[in-house]
Amino acid sequence: MWSTAREIAEGDLVIVWMTRDLVQPLAISSGKELNTRFGVYRHAELIGVPYGSKIGSRNGKGFIHLLRPTPELWTLALPHRTQILYLADIAFITSWLDIKPGSHVIEAGTGSGSFSHSTARTVGPTGHLWSYEFHEARANKAREEFSSHGMDEIVTLTHRNVCKEGFTVVDTVDSVFLDLPAPWDAVEHAKKALRKDRATRICCFSPCMEQVQRTIIALNDAGFTEITMYETLIRPHQVDVTPPLPTVSTIGNQLKEMEARREAKRLRQIANSRSRGDKRKREETEDSAEDQSAEKRHADEVDGSGKRHVEQTP
Ligand code: SAH
């Protein structure tokens, strides 16, 4: 599908890996520059570099990895025109639909082509994928991408409304995958496209239970059997370093130290309140002694009529 050469060449599609959450496709065209927050890179300088290389920016402030595209990386990097299918669903659906090298498969709609790239790689040149999309601009963009990714031989993209007009092949495919808002309207058409000489499979991908219920009714009416419903969830685990648990004796010592600190504080508080009490008593005693001597002085100054003596100097 993509370049299999060891080194990057003019016109190649490269996946630029900056961080886990920042992955972007890059079509190599000498004369252009890649401007990222991890530095500026001239395309011309990337030509001849082996796929998988880590490249430092010109000012030495950052670096990027240049990876060979795969469907998995394309799903992370592709320009979104619609909601897309991710690894967990794609892998599960591929497995349950028994899609393998040489399989003949239908998908509708094409959307952003995430499922298409994975399926094209799986079926390979001995198989075929018929992809249908009723949004014209999306169909054209996907056709362009399939072509530039070297998938022309493996994928046939048709611009049409499959719910109204059905599919372009009859009694041909091993499996049908429907990622449409109203898959129930395409179930009878899918039945016609599926081959009749062996057991075949259909998968309808819907986010809402109401859609699932309507699809199940349509599948039952069309005579499909062994109908089941699954939800796929992927849960990445984050690994953190946790310190080892303390021993019982360490915890015992910590408790003892805490208890000792509490006791010392209690004793300090008692001592403080005692010394405050003593000080207050001392002050009260001093105050009353002062009061008494003041009273005495006052009495000396006042005569029997209660009037103050005015000492007159001659
Ligand atoms: N599985 C795709 C995403 C599909 S999004 C991916 O992994 O990238 C659903 C697409 O179905 C949309 O692009 C929408 O335009 C198309 N669609 C909706 N109804 C349709 C119909 N009746 N016929 C064909 N395409 C249809």
From TrEMBL:
It is an enzyme of class 2 (transferase). The keyword Membrane does not apply. The keyword Nucleotide-binding does not apply. Residues 293-314 have a biased composition (Basic and acidic residues). It comes from the Eukaryota. Residues 62-284 form the tRNA (adenine(58)-N(1))-methyltransferase catalytic subunit TRM61 C-terminal domain. This is tRNA (adenine(58)-N(1))-methyltransferase catalytic subunit TRM61. It comes from Somion occarium.
